[in-house]
């Protein structure tokens, strides 16, 4: 996703004047070597000073520029949170906050480098839009969508090596709208971000074992969330599984349940998400996801109407030993 972001931003900069990239002394900035070489006057490294990164972006935006603030997700939004709230949101400035490696992508670096409550935090800010593409192709579309917004945007990205999931998607990317990336008529999996890779594997395994068809939708725009589109899913499907690499507190799953209540939907809603607490596990990203109870098997259990609580608890205990 980092390379896809770099390539998309490079295309933007070639055609749109006054676009800046501001980084806070992180190694992924090296992936933008071509950008720095070709547009050195629009690449700024502020060093280890995330608050200055946001303040500088605010100043650029007030001068009519379109800045992108780029760092690892927790450093992009947590350390300079007050600056984001007061300087960007209060003044409704068009600054894009790029959070790389959100969720538990930086697994081996520990909880300090994980961002599993970021969607809830950013969504709570007035005027902030939140976009979380599921694959490199959606990243390209998301970058251009960010350029069309008149206020601040949080762009939540994975890290690297994510597969393309949307090459044959029936629906195009549209800011503010959920997107079908696989047709189906029985069960629907709704989620966002690279974890939808698990959704596709679970869907194919479920179809092979039980028949029928499983639909998958990308809720890439989490704020403003497509409540009307979710309402349509609630009326079409008897069972919806919400999948997210994020704490279940105050995010997509809860909003889907609120929408279901508002329309008096009879659909069954299951959720598979990160736990609302720190889990002290060292290992790969898959290790951390399993410790949180997220796996293809856990998704399959939810889709088959089997309780996965005991499975999740056993996996969590296993990885915490």
Shape summary: globular
Strand order of the largest sheet: 2-1-3-4-6-5-10
Report strand %.
15-25%
Largest sheet: 7 strands, mixed
Which class best fits the helix and strand makeup?
Answer: alpha/beta
Which helices and strands appear, and what pairs or packs with what?
Layout (H helix, E strand, L loop, with lengths): L1 H14 L3 E5 L9 H6 L4 E3 L4 H13 L3 E7 H5 L3 H9 L6 E5 L17 H6 L5 E3 L4 H12 L5 E4 L22 E4 L4 E5 L4 H15 L3 E5 L2 E3 L3 H10 L2 E9 L4 H11 L5 E7 L10 H7 L4 H8 L5 H12 L1
Parallel strand pairs: 1-2, 1-3, 3-4, 4-6, 5-6, 8-9, 8-11, 11-12
Antiparallel strand pairs: 5-10, 7-9
Helix pairs in contact: 1-7, 3-5, 8-12, 9-10, 11-13
Please give a structural write-up:
With 321 residues, the protein is of the alpha/beta class. The chain is built from 13 helices and twelve strands. The chain folds into two domains: 2-156, Rossmann fold, CATH 3.40.50.970; 179-320, Rossmann fold. Helix content is 40%, strand content 19%. It has a seven-stranded mixed β-sheet with strand order 2-1-3-4-6-5-10, sandwiched between helices. Residues 306-321 have low confidence and may be disordered.
